[in-house]
Specification:
Layout: H1 3-9, H2 16-25, H3 27-47, E1 52-60, H4 75-88, H5 92-103, H6 119-127, E2 130-134, E3 140-147, H7 150-207, H8 213-238, H9 245-306, E4 314-318, H10 331-356, H11 363-370, E5 374-379, H12 387-391, H13 393-396, H14 401-414, E6 423-428, H15 435-448, E7 453-457, H16 465-468, H17 476-481, E8 492-493, E9 499-502, H18 511-515, H19 518-530, E10 533-537, H20 546-551, E11 556-562, H21 568-580, E12 585-593, H22 608-618, H23 621-632, H24 638-647, H25 649-683
Parallel strand pairs: 5-12, 6-10, 6-11, 7-9, 7-10, 11-12
Antiparallel strand pairs: 1-3, 1-4, 2-3, 8-9
Length: 684
């Protein structure tokens, strides 16, 4: 794949010049849209009601929780608390209280104009008037309330702020009372618990003779010490050798009793120690309960003191004053918004239209997408020129810029091929591309250069060449193809030297059948032998197949594309179709190019060419029918012939052509007879 093919596969490159051309092309559209949006902005601004804004500066500090805990409020927590307080301004309960306060002032009572609204609707409407703005890194908050009356705006803002402070105080007081009641109940419960524990401790001490326990333990320890001393003495006597067995037995019995006494006394000491430990634990529990009770009493005292104080964290720094100027409508902002909106819409629509515009705008587009050279570019005709002047502009205005364009086309045709191009067909992909005008002026510019030129009008559906040169459309190509005329009778002279034409003649019913005649090839061959250049004006290629038949007998074909409307895919398909039947396509002529603009508008195509052809054909419809019926049909076999025609369309077309040929002969005979009658009248 070469570089040119890569261009087709890739997106078209855009540069600054391209965007400038697009903006230049659609500048009127952008201007109109901008004017419309700006005008709408002005109209809306003039029709809008004036809205005033009352504003109050509040200080919302982090809530003091020292009664609940001793932790310091963090910055994040402080921000969350402040935002919570701000959102409280939108609460329906607060707004309802504010409206109740405003009702006491008849002039400032809030209502909805032209409506009897419920309380819920009034609350909703008033909430839409409220807005708040927090100052960065401060505890300051602006409260805004809007209204169409400047005095009411200030009253609404001040009343809402004051109501909020009262509402905040009352809310905190309710919370504090709730905490106070709960703490008081807890303190009473703890007091009862403390009394019960103290009573149980006293009873435990009394039951276990707690006051004498310490002395009893000391006495038991003394007795244990004496018993141990006695035990040691007996043990020493047992070690003596001169003791009798009876004495030894007696000592051992005494030692056993001593050991049992010691064990009993030690068990008693353990029991007494356990009682001491239990007393100590119970005393610690009582002390703990007493400490908790004291703490609860302290909190109860604090809340009792706080409940009588206005402990709140919101205060008014600056009250709202009556505003002097409205905040809405902002004429400057609205105008700027209308202007910017118009520009954005215009630019968006501009590039949207340009994106969908797939016409051939420049010669570079032709070479990039069609892969054919541009034989020339014809500028758009000025409004001061009429169609007839444009069709013969080479003859009438030999020094105009359009004539120079056709001269450039002639030069490009001469040097476009190494083989001389004598016969060429000029066609287009669709109608109204300017092919007839191009063919006429190319023929004129070649004749002006000294070439002997023959211009053949082969568009038998919409013939126009005879009108351009002011000739009658008698005989012509159609008469020659049906065999009524010979080549020598076809050529007509024009007012321009070296330029002859062959007009199309009367419109036949089926031009394709005539063009398939061998006589067409004979005519073009004869023209190539007797003229330096033969230019054939053919119908649009993508509409009918006439051009394909004609091009088979010529050296080359030229395509005319309207630079103001022709889609590139349409031209591309036309070129591919011509190349499939081995037609030498020299190149493309861009016609009707508006040089003053950066691009061309898109144009939609329909079957209007066929409709135009039917308009030409309708004038001869009755003649065809009458000639056909008189020549080939009788009253008896009318039904049979209709069925045959329907069953065999080719035979039907052949008979129609024969009828057309007969009609032309009758008209020619009538014309000759009319001339003879005029001559006889003159002689008589």
């Amino acid at each position: 794949m070469n570089e040119q093919q890569n261009w087709e596969a890739k997106t078209e490159e855009r540069d600054i010049r391209y965007y400038f051309e697009v903006l230049t092309k659609y500048a009127p559209l952008i201007f109109i849209i901008t004017v419309i949006t700006t005008g709408l902005a002005v109209a809306i601004t003039l029709n809008m009601h004036k809205v005033y804004q009352g504003k109050v500066l509040l200080c919302i500090e982090p809530q003091d929780n020292s009664l609940l805990d001793n932790t310091r409020v963090s910055d994040q927590r402080a921000y969350a608390l402040r935002q919570t307080q701000i959102q409280m301004f939108y609460s329906r309960e607060l707004i309802k209280r504010t409206l109740d306060t405003l009702r006491t002032n008849t002039l400032a009572a809030f209502t909805i104009p032209n409506r009897r609204a419920t309380d819920s609707q009034l609350v909703t409407a008033f909430s839409k008037k409220i807005s708040l703005k927090s100052e960065m890194r401060t505890d300051l908050v602006w409260l805004f309330v809007e209204d169409e009356d400047k005095k009411r705006a200030a009253i609404y803002a001040n009343t809402l702020a004051e109501t909020y402070i009262r509402f905040n105080i009352q809310s905190r007081m309710r919370v504090m009372h709730l905490y106070y009641d709960q703490l008081n109940d807890s303190a009473n419960a703890k007091k009862a618990e403390l009394i019960a524990e103290e009573q149980a401790l006293l009873e435990y001490k009394s039951t276990n003779n707690f006051q004498n326990i310490s002395g009893h333990i000391e006495l038991l320890n003394t007795e244990i010490a004496d018993l141990q001393h006695e035990l040691q003495s007996n043990q020493a006597r047992l070690d003596e050798k001169d003791l009798s067995e009876t004495e030894k037995y007696t000592l051992k019995e005494a030692n056993g009793k001593i050991n049992r006494d010691i064990a009993t006394k030690r068990a008693a000491i353990v029991t007494l120690d356990e009682i001491l430990k239990n007393v100590k634990v119970r005393e610690m529990q009582v002390e703990s309960t007493r400490s908790q009770y004291r703490d609860l009493l302290s909190l109860v005292s604090k809340f009792a003191l706080g409940s009588n104080m206005e402990n709140y964290n919101v205060r008014i720094v600056d009250k709202a004053e009556t505003p002097t100027s409205p905040i809405k409508p902002n004429a400057v902002n609205n105008l700027i918004m209308g202007l910017v909106t118009g520009l954005l819409l215009g630019l968006g629509l501009t590039f949207f239209l340009e994106y969908w515009d797939d016409t051939l705008k420049t010669p570079d587009d032709v070479e990039r997408f069609i892969h054919l050279p541009v034989m020339g570019t014809v500028p758009k005709m000025l409004k001061s020129n009429n169609v007839q002047e444009l069709e013969r502009i080479v003859e009438f205005y030999p020094k105009s810029i359009i004539t120079e364009s056709y001269q450039s086309i002639r030069t490009n045709i001469l040097f476009s091929s190494s083989k001389p191009i004598k016969t060429m067909v000029i066609t287009s992909s669709a109608m109204s591309e300017g092919k007839t005008t191009t063919a006429s002026n190319v023929a004129q510019v070649m004749a002006a250069a000294g070439d002997k030129v023959l211009l053949i009008d082969a568009d038998m559906r919409r013939p126009r060449v005879h009108k351009i040169f002011g000739l009658e459309n008698e005989g012509g190509l159609s008469a020659y193809l049906v065999g009524m005329k010979e080549i020598g009778d076809l050529v007509s002279k024009t007012t321009m030297a070296n330029l002859d034409i062959i007009n199309a003649g009367h419109t036949p019913p089926v031009p394709v059948e005539l063009l398939n005649s061998p006589r067409l090839g004979e005519l073009i061959k004869w023209a190539g032998e007797h003229y330096d250049r033969v230019i054939i004006d053919a119908p649009p290629y993508m509409v009918v197949t006439d051009s394909a038949i004609i091009a088979q007998h010529t050296d080359a074909a030229l395509l005319v594309a309207n630079g103001d409307r022709t889609p590139r895919d349409q031209v591309k398909n036309c070129v591919l179709s011509l190349k499939k039947i081995n037609i030498n396509v020299l190149g493309i002529i861009l016609n009707n190019v508006d040089i003053s603009r950066g691009g061309y508008y898109r144009y939609g195509y329909t079957y209007s060419y066929y409709r135009s052809y039917r308009a030409y054909r309708s004038s001869y419809k009755s003649a065809y029918k009458s000639a056909y019926r008189s020549a080939y049909r009788s009253d008896e076999d009318k039904k049979k012939e209709v069925k045959t025609a329907a069953a065999n369309p080719a035979d039907n077309r052949r008979k129609a052509l024969e009828a057309y040929e007969k009609m032309l002969k009758e008209r020619e005979a009538a014309k000759t007879e009319g001339k003879e009658n005029k001559e006889n009248e003159k002689k008589s």
